[in-house]
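Checklist before submission:
- one chain only
- standard amino acids only
- sequence pasted in full

Submission:
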Amino acid sequence: MAACAAARMFAYNATLCACDPGYYYHLSGNGTASCAGMPGDGWGDWQVGAEGAPRNQSLYFLAPVLSIDAVRRLTQSQAVLLEAALAALLTWLAFCAAARVVGRDPRGEKRMFRARYWVSRLDFLFDNTHWAVDQQVLRKRKTELGGTCSVTSLILFTGLLTVLLYQAINRRSIEVHRVKPANAPDLLSFVNDLEFHITTVSSMSCAQAVAPSTIAMGTPGFMDFRMVPLSMLFTYSCTNTSQGPSITLRCNGCRIAPRDHYLSWQFVDLPGQPATTVGFQFNLTSRQHGDDQHMSFVSGMMNSDDYADDGKLRTFRGRDSNVLKIQLFPQIHNNLGNLRLLQPLVQDFTQGSAFSDVGSLNLSLQNPRDGMVNTTLYISYLSDYIVEISNESVVGPVSVLASIGGLYAFSVAICLCLMAQCEARIKKLRDEDTKMLKILSKRRARQNWDKVRKFVMYTWGPSNLNPTDRSGQQPEGSCIESFTREETIRRATSDVNGPSRVPANMGAIVIKRDEEAEQPNSPR
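Returned file contents:
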């Protein structure tokens, strides 16, 4: 009894240990015994599908320049593309608003004012559609609002165009399924390699398995019912795994006739190893004979909790067989070179003998008549129809070009309406380009005048422009003295021809200065 002290474990036959219903006896590598449940979260998730379908080759010409896989990773969702375009649009509008508020400078020296000017230079869409007074010739203008709206329309158009290209790449074709009635020769034309792996989740081993020898075909009780050797259709093998014995049934290049097939096997008690299980794990695959690139499959787990209303965990044991119903769905893939695959599907699971309480399970473990686990595989066709799968293109070059034109017109129309409404309601926006150009012209004139002043300073030098020397007197031959003489002579000449506008003693001053100039040795 001390050996059965682990959780969810009880003793039977006074010396042996067993696990509660829904758990199986598990012996770890170090010899520690415990009770384990069905592996996986949520008792395993089912998977149905196909593998190995070739990718579309229409865009492989871009492979030397840009990897298509990289494009798919970057454009995984339309929402991501739209959010990126919206973020870029809001960033641009915020920048333009900040430049207009901060860049108010009558002298045009701030950086933000220059940013406003370059925003106006980006007016490449609406430069001839601005506000104009009636009866006035329309002229091309580049305004700050026009530049903002032009870039806004470009960002909006680029974002929508990216989403359109994303749709064109991912939804350039649709998969069309057509159903047609199937005759017997049509179903026999499916030559597939089938592999059925059914693992009995338990503490049993392949030594307890009783291999099947025959397979039943047809409907029991009718004239088409037959019993044939198993080797005519399948090959049987059993492998011990960490989760229990795994039964493998293979059929290479087989043609499944359009009738029902029944295949049964069982596990029996061995001394110290009772025949119990808590569920079944299956993996069914199908390939066209001679083609290893494409495969149809279905995998998952079966346990009592999935098919019981009371939600109690059960342990399967007893005479009644557990029936796993598998149906084959014939499909012709015209888009894959007339590939013919039988898609296996697990349609139903019928529970056999099972126990949900410890007392009944304990009595069953002590009853030799219940010392078995029966499993039956029921294989049939899903219907008398064949599904033909083909791809049809839904995106053509004309439709793509029409969509691009519509997106461009939509983007430009929205921004044009916004710009027209702003210029119609805010009058100072109508001549903002004139104001900005005047500020830039004044700034350019100041810069040019500064250049002229620097040129004069550099050419004549500061000594020639200085009216006095170090002694406080004007040097001889200076520019100021020459200018004074010329100005005096000009005024004296104008005094003879016109009314006097100079002082009365101006002539005596001029004569005295000339006499002093003729006597170089006389002190000044």
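Reviewer check: Residues 53-63, 498-515, 517-524 have pLDDT under 50 and may be disordered.
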